[in-house]
What we know:
Radius of gyration: 19 Å
Strand order of the largest sheet: 1-2
Strand content: under 5%
Number of strands: 2
Number of helices: 12
Shape: globular
Amino acid sequence: MKKTEKYGIFLALFSAVLYALSTPFSKILLESVPSTMMAGLLYIGAGIGMGFVALFRKKTNRKPEDGKFTKAEFPYVFGMILLDIAAPVCLMFGLRMTSAANASLLNNFEYAATALIAFFIFGEKISKRLWLGISATVLACMILSFEGTAAFDFSKGSALVLLSAVLWGIENNCTKALSEKDPMKIVILKGVFCGGTSFLIAVFAGEKAENISAVVFALLLGAVSYGLSIFVFVYAQRYLGAARTSVYSAATPFAAAALSLVIFREVPEKQYFAALLLMIFGAFLSSGDKPLFKKD
């Protein structure tokens, strides 16, 4: 395995761990901050955090990476922003009409959607080992989310959750198309537009957060688990591509479970360990680079 690949894998896993921080700590903060507003604050915190990093970089006279988008890249920029707004909204409405177990199961389709879209639409090469790795990863996520046959109940809510996963899959590929640009600028764009939109939705829905301390902590959490996580994720895509990066990022639920065990003393169910073995196997398979299909 090349050093660049190892570095990309490290970045993808680091991004997953950073993003995993949002799950247990958001659960604590949700006692004081409404859900939709919480989502907005996390994104806004991401934008603010990267904004401060950008100012620091400017003061140290460190030359930023190419952050100018060309006309050919504008559709990807627009798509990235629009999809990052639409996907959470679809998920929010879907959650209103379906069970949490069903939503968790269907939302894991994002990993498969990212890889399939990367191959069929963006022409990214997918090796046989990677196909198997993706399959093992998705199966692991399904085992982790499965809570009984009722979890397979399909309804309008299920369709919306599945749609959100597909939208995020497309968004991951739009971000990959921009991965050579300054990741900091990409995170700031996501923070401002996605966070601002979610926050406005929360305000119009009548949500209020009276605990100022919780709001500040939500912004700080967003700066780390969303801002820095996305920043590192974009770098990982440079070395691994959208499909492989998503496979390693699927380690997020396991990292979140480990944190929950420490914070809430929650002991994982038996299926957690079965899923963990599948995840490790999937990560091993994903290290292969021999193409199964090639596109001209």
